[in-house]
Structure formats: structure tokens, C-alpha cells
Amino acid sequence: MEPFLLVGIGGAIGSIFRFELAKLQPSRGLPVGTALVNILGSFLFAVVVFAALPGDLYYLTGIGALGGFTTFSTFCFETFRMLEDHDYHTVITNTLINVAGSLAGVYAGYLLVVWFV
Q1: b or e along 34-49 (b: 16 or more beta carbons within 10 Å of the residue's beta carbon)?
Q2: If you write DSSP's letter for every residue of 45-59 in order, what string do you get?
């Protein structure tokens, strides 16, 4: 199948999963759903990359599904809104959770592949 179709199909699937997890977050305060998506997405992307999935499967899962699933742009927008509200404590907490958690997700995915593959 053509890579652009695989990326599109995967992107639709990833976006649907992101939409469902985003329901976990409040309208203001710490956006738990976005943090969960960023951390889980980082972990899953590391698994896909370090497991060296072959072409079509990589396009479908790595670029498509996980590209549609992760929410860095949403994270940035939500953090900007917190700055507008002068909620600096939540800005710092949100940034640390998303960045440190996502890096931990990548490392955990790497370890999983190294240990079991």
C-alpha cells in the first residue's frame, strides 16, 4: 500500500484515540489527558523506532497513528493559556510532567525493546 495512505489511515486512528483520552482533562488546571497522550505516545514511538518495524508497519504506526496521537501542539496551546491566566505554578508543573514524562516514555520504550527483542 502507498505510504501516504498508510500514514493517513494511521493518523485517523491515532487522532480518535487522542480525542478519547483528551476527555480526561479539565477546562482549566493541569491537562491530564494531554500529559498522558504525550508520555504514552513517546513510549510507543520509542518502541516502534527501536524495534525497527518494517516500512509499511512503520508508516502506519510510527508516522501515522502516533503522529495523529501525540499532542505537542495542544500541550503548547494549553501552557500558553496557563501563562495568560498567570498560573505559573501549573505552567511549571505541566511542562515538567510532559517533558520529563515523555523522555521517560522514550527511555522505557527503548528498554522494553532492548530487553525483549
Answers
A1: bbbbbbbbbbbbbbbb
A2: HHHHHHTT--HHHHI
Longest dimension (CA), the chain: 49
pLDDT on residue 27: 66
Nearest to 3 by CA among 69, 68, 70, 54: 54
User: What residue has cell string 527511555?
Assistant: 107
DSSP letter for each residue of 13-69 = HHHHHHHHHHTTS-SSS--HHHHHHHHHHHHHHHHHHHTT--HHHHIIIIIIIHHHH
Cell of 32: 491530564
- pTM, whole model, 2 decimals? 0.80
